[in-house]
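Next up, a specimen:

>
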Amino acid sequence: MHKARGVAAALAALLVLFARPAAAKDELVIGITQFPSTLHPGFDPLLAKSYVLAMTRRPFTAYDQDWKLICLLCTELPTIANGGAKPIAKDGRDGIAVTYTIHPGATWGDGVPVTTKDVKFTWEVGRHPHTAIGAGEFFRRIVAIDIADDRTFTLHFERARYDYNAINDFELLPAHVEAERFADPGTYRQRTAFDTDPTDKGLHFGPYRIAEVKPGSHITLERNPTWYGAAPHFRRIVVRVVENSAALEANLLSGAIDYIPGELGLTLDQALALEKRHPGRFDILYKPGLKYEHIPLNLDHPALEDPRVRRALLHAIDREALSRQLFAGKQKVAHSFVSPLDRIAAADVPSYRFDPARAAALLESAGWTLQGKVRRNAAGETLSLELLTTTEDSTRRLVQQVLQSQWRKTGIEVRLRNEPARVLIGDSMRQRKFTMAMYFSFSAPEGNARGFLHSGQIPTADNGFAGQNRAGLGDAETDSLIERIEATLDPSPRRVLWRALQHRYAALLPALPLYFRTDPYIMPKWLDGVAPTGHQGVSTLWVENWRMRP
């Protein structure tokens, strides 16, 4: 009896030990699975980069945890109702002028105030055809900028869009640091201080600044004394990169890292297994959201340009079984690029159920006949494709193998290849050097679809591989729907157009929808204040609210 009490007491003591640190901590160690290919806010839309930079800067606007558009760097959100935005008809176009004021306390880490000089410079960089900024289309929509004073400016947009005041992509660049490096726009990507000198204090104006960068290993952030907001609790934050998820979990259990965020950490199945093995040791928050796991298809591929083949690929895989077996049914199968959680989701989007017989019939009609165990066309060519995904995600690699097996049963030969996320997104996808690729995209609520579906956003050598329509979809009806959605400010008729776009997407299948991800945030018992959004706005945008529980 006494021995049992002793064991119980020892276990209780261990739980207390695991539950909170021995003393107050002023350093937080975060573990993620990807290292950014660049730290420049405009290049390569990698989530790892966004996660880090959100601690060192702030966008003008962002969607918060309630999916409401708010000001972060500006003082008041301009609207047509409050007079901050004014529709302007000119040359037969319905444009709009939108005025913002920079927060009066915003100051770069070297003491230089954040001003409209930075606004004008960022616009010049963003719209230049030789810089290939990811949000280049956004900057080119701004036809002029009026400067009222050092803090107030007006953006003149060529056309009024429903998201006219959401300038989340207007990521400021410090003119006093970057202007000289931009003297030759063609080489700016290689010369930017964000990559050649990332610890330069003049690059950051958020609650933290980057103090150390060890490529492939970690990024260290320290409090920024010029930050204008609430003082962050932690003196230092270390973002440690552990690309192997099993090793990431081992680092968490050993105490080498404190926290694994949902944005770039363990997959849902890994978190469920961890919680089962170590019940009560961590606070685990499961956050469903707009993260869309899918397989973009390169529509320039001779086989994939036929929509019947694309539909057959989807009919041949059992996504419901994947979700059920790997994720306990917690990740809903996707039928469109729009999550059911989004306010614009259509309830009647066509779905492609698991139907191998239907897949076979579609392939036969497209000229791919079964010869032995493989399918060939009239020229004797084998229906052979390649599926690419990220090396860091062991669950993706497992899904990859399951899909390969299911496609094989329909006579489709699929080779598997993996690359680090920074290579996949920064090179292979950016330059469209792929056949099929599995990864996720992240959007804001009612996020504009132009960037990844409009024909004007296909990356090419001529446009510096800007744009994210990596599938290469060139469809006049899709373009028209996107343009009409953008021009419709009234939400009710806009929802009708969104429904039509989702139906068109389901018919064309430029990508194979898999599921909408639920992200697990694995926190120590003593960490408080982390508030995931479920959308494109990463949780680190509010890092100053993170602290130790009292």
The radius of gyration is 25 Å. The longest strand covers residues 283-296.
